[in-house]
Amino acid sequence: MSTILNFIKKEIVLVIAFLLAVISAVYIHPDLSYLSYIDFRTLSILLSLMLTMAGLQKLSLFRQIGSFLVDKAHSIRSVALIFILLNFFFSMIITNDVALITFVPFTIVTLNLAKRSDLLIITIVLETIAANLGSMLTPLGNPQNLYLYSRSGMSFFSFIKLMLPYSILSLLLLIVCCFMLIQTSPLDPCEAFHKKRSKKEKLLLILYFATFIVALLVVLRILPYYVGLLLILLPVVLFDRSILKKPDYSLLLTFVFLFIFIGNIKRIPAVHQLLLQIIKGHEVGLSVLLSQFISNVPCAILCSGFTDQTASLIIGTNLGGLGTLIASMASLISFKQYGFTAQAKRGKYILVFTIANVLFLAVMLLAHTLLLS
Questions:
Q1: Span 92-137, pLDDT tens digits
Q2: DSSP character for 197?
Q3: Which residues pair with 75 in a beta bridge?
Q4: In this structure, how many other beta carbons lie within 10 angstroms of the beta carbon of residue 230?
Q5: How far apart are CA 279 and CA 295, in angstroms?
Q6: What Cα–Cα distance (Å) separates residue 304 from each residue in 36, 280, 297, 313?
Q7: The pTM is what?
Q8: Residue whose C-alpha is closest to residue 16's, from 26, 24, 8
Q9: CB neighbours (10 Å) of residue 250?
Q10: Are 94 and 139 in contact (CB under 8 A)?
Q11: Closest to 134 (Cα-Cα) out of 179, 90, 100
């Protein structure tokens, strides 16, 4: 029983998505139409990127880049700023989840070595905001972007153009907050992280660079998704099979169950019409609000079934990643990492996180209103 409860606690979003799919299946019994619900292109791109990023992370590539930059810093504020910027810019390419998984543990080690554990909470909170806001600029940045980009038919550069004003503003806000909230002080030099790679590791590094290019070609709609997935899966299976355990398969299943739920709801005319009326014209506000309770990835999938205003959903679900701790599931990654530290003050972390996120959300929503006017 405890095993089941632990699973539900760990995978609450997956469980809710499964229950929604099952309940909807009571009204619309399973048939061949279910296959048409599922966006196989989005799922295959997500899996391709997960495999690629897991491979590059295993080879410590991002940690090595981060260490090189931190080694050049001469004050504690510059170290914090580097970590914030690493999360902001890397999240655009490697996703917000991978950025936080990579750089938050590195932040904890670095600040503890510098005897500045007092800065852990504010630095990690700003890193988390940076990863969530940095990731909004590109279709590769987070799962909801990838899904909505696939649905929208936008070009890669049209997507970037849509989100660029929000990204520039968020970058300026992060830099200002870093200078306001983190007092500068000298930093003792830390030993840089160096990794000598074996011949096999060097070959794997080349392999994963190649798989990333393949994934990018699929995102840009140059390669068919099934060709891209095959070109990525085949070398992984042949040369680095252990990476197959790394992807977040629960996220992929969550997508599948939500696709089924939305597909079934669309076949119930009364419910479908009601949801169309509720969402139409309120895509940004509703997606921001809904994200606070169910997180922005499920929100993107649910709302996309009842509006054709995909651009508004892209904005809303990205801004909706700010706010509560569960508004973006990536935020839980940094919270858990901080919770593992010996000096963790979880209550204080949640308080600082919530205040900072609400303030950022308020400014970003104000900016959105001004951009519309």
A1: 999 999 999 989 988 998 888 888 889 999 999 999 999 999 999 9
A2: P
A3: 186
A4: 13
A5: 17
A6: 15, 11, 11, 7
A7: 0.88
A8: 8
A9: 15
A10: no
A11: 90
